[in-house]
Amino acid sequence: MALMITDECINCDVCEPECPNNAISPGEEIYVIDHNLCTECVGHYDEPQCQQVCPVDCIPLDPEHVESHDKLMEKYHIITAA
């Protein structure tokens, strides 16, 4: 599964630099996560780094983008090969 940022986001700017895949960017009102780039940090870290630093706990799993660990690892290899 990719992650998503909910409307509880306070735009604190701490998540964006933590993403190793550059999947997080400023949206119109709050930060957004590109599900095509989000691997939940699989391949980089044991846990999603954005969730670790988020002070308001507004980065849950995105139920609309369900992916297995193997699929996330495959995506990681594609992203890092580019």
Describe this protein's structure.
By secondary structure, the protein is an alpha+beta fold. Helix content is 22%, strand content 7%. The chain contains two helices and two strands; from the N terminus they run ββαα. It has helices spanning 49-53, 69-81; strands spanning 24-26, 31-33. It holds the Pfam family Fer4_7. Residues 1-29, 31-64 form the 4Fe-4S ferredoxin-type domain. Keywords: 4Fe-4S, Electron transport, Iron, Iron-sulfur, Metal-binding, Repeat, Transport. It comes from Halomonas cupida.
Q: Please identify the top-level CATH class.
A: Alpha Beta
State mean pLDDT (0 to 100 scale): 96
How many separate domains make up the residues?
A: 1
**Helix residue percentage:** 10-25%
Number of strands: 2
Radius of gyration: 12 Å
- What characteristic shape results from the CA principal axes? globular
CATH architecture: 2-Layer Sandwich
Structural class: alpha+beta
Q: Measure the end-to-end span.
A: 21 Å
Q: How many separate helices?
A: 2
Strand order of the largest sheet: 1-2
Largest sheet: 2 strands, antiparallel
- CATH topology term: Alpha-Beta Plaits
Strand content: 5-15%
- Low-confidence sequence ranges: none
Q: Secondary-structure element sequence? A: EEHH
Set out the fold topology:
Layout: E1 24-26, E2 31-33, H1 49-53, H2 69-81
Antiparallel strand pairs: 1-2
